[in-house]
UniProtKB/TrEMBL annotation:
<dbReference type="InterPro" id="IPR043137">
    <property type="entry name" value="GGT_ssub_C"/>
</dbReference>
<feature type="binding site">
    <location>
        <begin position="73"/>
        <end position="75"/>
    </location>
    <ligand>
        <name>L-glutamate</name>
    </ligand>
</feature>
<feature type="binding site">
    <location>
        <position position="96"/>
    </location>
    <ligand>
        <name>L-glutamate</name>
    </ligand>
</feature>
<feature type="binding site">
    <location>
        <begin position="124"/>
        <end position="125"/>
    </location>
    <ligand>
        <name>L-glutamate</name>
    </ligand>
</feature>
<feature type="binding site">
    <location>
        <position position="148"/>
    </location>
    <ligand>
        <name>L-glutamate</name>
    </ligand>
</feature>
<dbReference type="Pfam" id="PF01019">
    <property type="entry name" value="G_glu_transpept"/>
</dbReference>
<dbReference type="GO" id="GO:0005886">
    <property type="term" value="C:plasma membrane"/>
</dbReference>
<dbReference type="InterPro" id="IPR029055">
    <property type="entry name" value="Ntn_hydrolases_N"/>
</dbReference>
<dbReference type="InterPro" id="IPR000101">
    <property type="entry name" value="GGT_peptidase"/>
</dbReference>
<feature type="active site" description="Nucleophile">
    <location>
        <position position="55"/>
    </location>
</feature>
<protein>
    <submittedName>
        <fullName>Gamma-glutamyltranspeptidase</fullName>
    </submittedName>
</protein>
<dbReference type="GO" id="GO:0036374">
    <property type="term" value="F:glutathione hydrolase activity"/>
</dbReference>
<dbReference type="GO" id="GO:0006751">
    <property type="term" value="P:glutathione catabolic process"/>
</dbReference>
Length: 252
């Protein structure tokens, strides 16, 4: 049957798949009017709210090698906390401007070049990135991150790990991260065995400290990235950051 753009398909020709009815298991009643229990009693596994803020990133590469890297944000938690009548949450990107004498929510010191002026756009850490092979022109990686000021260093590290070190997307996202935003402190991850993120090598940190860096460790750097890569043979692999346990990367 021809189904081109100008074809009119008769309803009688459309065959919809059928399936047997499914009975879902009933969960036992866990709420009562006269008492409450600790959170663990309610068996919240898989339903626990994420510690989200206002930024999301996604990347995609299709079979033809076309790529998208998209970062979207309302900035801080619930943005400006104002919603339009049709359900759109308004951002609070004014915080990305500098104000005299005030450090913004991501630790950036005020800079006169970023002061609020008519017609100006504020600075942004969004770093949605796509890289291609210089010899073939084929897309090799699409990546980016959420995480405020940590977006820049996270994205740079993903590009470095994949392009320069040749490790897999999953290894890229699980690699320990460092962060420095010219605040006088360089941060390194302890890592997390639970999430599968290795901590930073002590020897590397000690070496940088010997060069004069003011180094400190933190649990995780706060960035959450996504990597999709296309090998020379056309194989596409994807990985989401294990730092956000609900995230999943997949290739189809």
């Amino acid at each position: 049957m021809d189904s081109g753009p100008n074809t009119v398909i008769q309803p009688s020709l459309l065959m919809l798949p059928t399936c047997n009815s499914i009975t879902l298991p009933r969960r036992p009643l866990r709420t009562f009017d006269n008492t409450t229990f600790p959170v663990a009693y309610y068996d919240p596994s898989g339903y626990t709210p994420l510690n989200d803020h206002g930024t999301s990133h996604m990347a995609a590469i299709d079979q033809a090698g076309m790529a998208v890297s998209l970062t979207t944000t309302v900035n801080l938690l619930w943005g400006s906390q104002v919603m339009t009548t049709d359900g759109i949450i308004l951002n609070d990107e004014m915080d990305d401007f500098s104000s005299p004498g005030q450090v913004n929510s991501f630790g950036f010191a005020p800079s006169p070049i970023n002061f609020i002026r008519p017609g100006k756009r504020p600075q942004s850490s969004i770093s949605s990135s796509i890289a291609e092979d210089l010899e073939t022109g084929e897309i090799t990686i699409a990546t980016g991150s959420a995480g405020g000021s940590r977006i820049i260093t996270a994205t740079l590290q993903e590009l470095h790990h994949y392009i320069d070190q040749g490790i897999t997307p999953a290894e890229c996202t699980a690699h320990p991260r460092w962060h420095d935003q010219l605040s006088g402190v360089t941060y390194f991850e302890f890592g997390s065995d639970t999430l599968g993120v290795k901590g930073f090598d002590n020897g590397t940190v000690a070496y940088l400290k010997g060069l004069g860096y003011n180094t400190t460790y933190e649990d995780l750097t706060g960035s959450v990235s996504h990597v999709v890569a296309r090998a020379k043979d056309g194989t596409i692999t994807a990985a989401s950051d294990p730092r956000k346990a609900a995230g999943r990367g997949a290739a189809y």
